[in-house]
Design a protein that fits this description.
With about 425 residues, the chain is α+β, with helices and mostly antiparallel strands. It is built from eleven helices and 20 strands. GO terms for molecular function: DNA binding. InterPro entries: Cas12f1-like_TNB (IPR010095), RNA-guided_DNA_endo/Transpos (IPR051399), Transposase (IPR001959).
C-alpha cells in the first residue's frame, strides 16, 4: 500500500543551509535547461522531444549523477503526462519552468531512494547525497552525506520500501520540507482503530469550506471567506497579467508562478483541514464520514459565481482522496453520497420551497432560523442515519496560514443582514 511521510527539514548550520539552497537551485536550473531543450524540440517537427543532451557532466559535480538522473526522469514524466492529456483532447499546457534566475528559481529537487536515508528517533535526521564538488567546497568527506535535522512526527515510520524523495523550500511556511513516498504492509495501514461507531456528515461549501455534524451532537464549521478572497485576488492578478501578454502568448513565468502559488496555498489549507477534522472526529468516536457530492450542489441552486469559485477552489476529488487517506490512518471510512437540496431543506418541517437562504442564514415560515451550512450538514446526516442527540454549540475554526484554530466568536446563527430574512416567521 502506498502512503507518504511529510516532514520539515532543518539545516544544522548556516553553511548547511547555504549548501542545501545551492543544491536545490542547481536542481531547478537543470530542470529548466532540460525543459527548454524539450520545448524547442517539440516546436521543431524534425526533432524528437525525448532526444536531449547529456547533463551529468555539467551538473553531476553539484548534484551527483543519481539526482541528475531523477530530475531528468521527473521531467520526462511531466512530458508523458502532457502527451497523455493532449491525446485525450483535454486542455493542458506544456510543462513549465521552475522560476528563473532573474525572479528567483523554485527551490526543489528529487533524490533517488538509494541516495538518502532517514533515521527516526528522539533526534530524527535526514542524510542526502550531494555532488563531489559541493562536498569539497563545504568540507564533507568522500563518503559523507549532508546531514539535516528532521522535525515532525511522520505517520509511517515502518515501511517496506521508500520511494523517490521530494525536497523543497516552502515559501508560505518559510521552511524546507520533504515528501517521502513509502510502501507499507496492510498490517500497518492504520495508526488506530475507531473508538466507537458514531457517524458524521460533511457539507462542502463556498463561504464555509466544511460544515460537519456528528451523531454525538457535535458541530464544526471551517470558515473559508479569507481563503477564497486570497484565491480570487491571485486569480484576478493572473487574468490581469494574461491581458498584457503579446498576441499569441498565453502564459509567462510570472503567471505560472502565480498559478503554482495559488495551488500550493489551497492544498496546504485543505491538507491541514483534512488532518484537523479527522483527528477531531476520531476523538469523538466517529467511524463513518458521509461527504456530500459537490456536483449535487453545483447542479441545484447556487449562483453561477458561487458555483465557479467553489468548483475551481475545491478540486473536489483530490480533497475527498486526501480526506479518505487521512481517515484510513484512524480506521475511519469515507463515503460520498448525494446531498441534493439539503442546503434548502428546513430541518424543522422539511420544506424546500418556502425556505430563504441569505449568506449564512436559513429561515423558514415555520419559524426555524439557523446557520445554513450547519443545518445542511445536519439534514444530510439525518438522511443517512438516526440522530437522537441534540446539537451542542458549534465550534467555528479559522485558517491562519498554518493551522486551523478555534475562533473566539460564536457561529453567526442570529445574524440578520437582510430585512426580508429578518421579517420571515415573525
Amino acid at each position: 500500500m502506498k502512503r507518504a511521510n511529510t516532514f520539515d527539514v532543518i539545516p544544522q548550520s548556516n553553511e548547511d543551509e547555504e549548501l542545501l539552497r545551492r543544491l536545490l537551485d542547481a536542481s531547478a536550473a537543470l530542470w529548466n535547461e532540460i525543459n527548454y531543450e524539450r520545448r524547442e524540440n517539440y516546436a521543431d517537427p524534425d526533432k524528437d522531444v525525448w532526444d536531449i543532451s547529456e547533463y551529468r557532466g555539467r551538473y553531476g559535480g553539484t548534484l551527483g549523477a543519481s539526482t541528475v538522473q531523477q530530475i531528468e526522469r521527473k521531467n520526462r514524466e511531466a512530458w508523458n503526462s502532457f502527451f497523455s492529456l493532449k491525446k485525450k483532447g483535454e486542455a493542458n499546457s506544456k510543462p513549465g519552468y521552475w522560476g528563473n534566475s532573474e525572479d528567483g528559481r523554485e527551490l526543489r529537487t528529487y533524490i533517488r531512494n538509494t541516495s538518502y536515508s532517514v533515521e527516526w528517533g528522539e533526534y530524527s535526521r535526514l542524510e542526502i547525497l550531494v555532488g563531489q564538488d559541493l562536498k569539497d567546497e563545504y568540507g564533507l568527506g568522500y563518503r559523507e552525506r549532508l546531514r539535516l535535522e528532521v522535525r515532525g512526527d511522520p505517520n509511517w515510520k515502518e515501511y517496506k520500501k521508500q520511494g523517490r524523495l521530494e525536497l523543497f523550500y516552502d515559501e508560505q511556511a518559510q521552511t524546507f520540507r520533504a515528501f517521502q513516498p513509502v510502501t507499507i504492509s496492510e498490517d500497518h495501514s492504520r495508526l488506530a482503530h475507531p473508538l466507537a461507531s458514531k457517524e458524521a456528515a460533511l457539507d462542502i461549501g463556498a463561504n464555509n469550506l466544511v460544515a460537519c455534524t456528528t451523531t454525538t451532537g457535535q458541530q464544526l464549521l471551517y470558515e473559508g471567506r479569507d481563503l477564497f478572497e486570497r484565491f480570487r485576488e491571485t486569480t484576478r492578478e493572473i487574468a490581469r497579467r494574461q491581458s498584457l501578454l503579446e498576441e499569441g502568448r498565453y502564459s509567462s513565468d510570472r503567471i505560472r508562478c502565480l498559478y503554482d502559488r495559488r495551488t500550493k496555498r489551497r492544498d496546504h489549507a485543505q491538507d491541514a483541514l483534512a488532518r484537523d477534522l479527522i483527528e477531531r472526529l476520531y476523538e469523538d468516536g466517529v467511524s463513518t464520514v458521509y461527504v456530500g457530492a459537490l456536483t449535487d450542489v453545483l447542479d441545484t441552486h447556487w449562483s453561477v459565481e458561487t458555483n465557479a469559485k467553489t468548483h475551481n477552489f475545491w478540486a473536489f476529488r483530490a480533497f475527498v482522496n486526501r480526506l479518505a487517506c487521512t481517515a484510513e490512518e484512524y480506521g475511519i471510512s469515507v463515503e460520498v453520497r448525494s446531498e441534493a437540496w439539503t442546503s434548502q431543506e428546513c430541518p424543522n418541517c422539511g420544506s424546500t420551497e418556502d425556505t430563504i437562504r441569505h449568506q449564512d442564514t436559513l429561515t423558514c415560515p415555520c419559524g426555524f432560523e439557523g446557520h445554513a451550512d450547519l443545518s445542511a450538514s445536519e439534514t444530510f446526516l439525518r438522511r443517512q442515519t438516526t440522530v437522537t442527540r441534540s446539537m451542542a454549540r458549534p465550534v467555528c475554526l479559522k485558517w491562519d496560514d498554518h493551522n486551523w484554530s478555534e475562533s473566539p466568536r460564536s457561529v453567526p446563527n442570529e445574524e440578520h443582514t437582510n430585512p426580508q430574512v429578518a421579517s420571515v416567521g415573525r
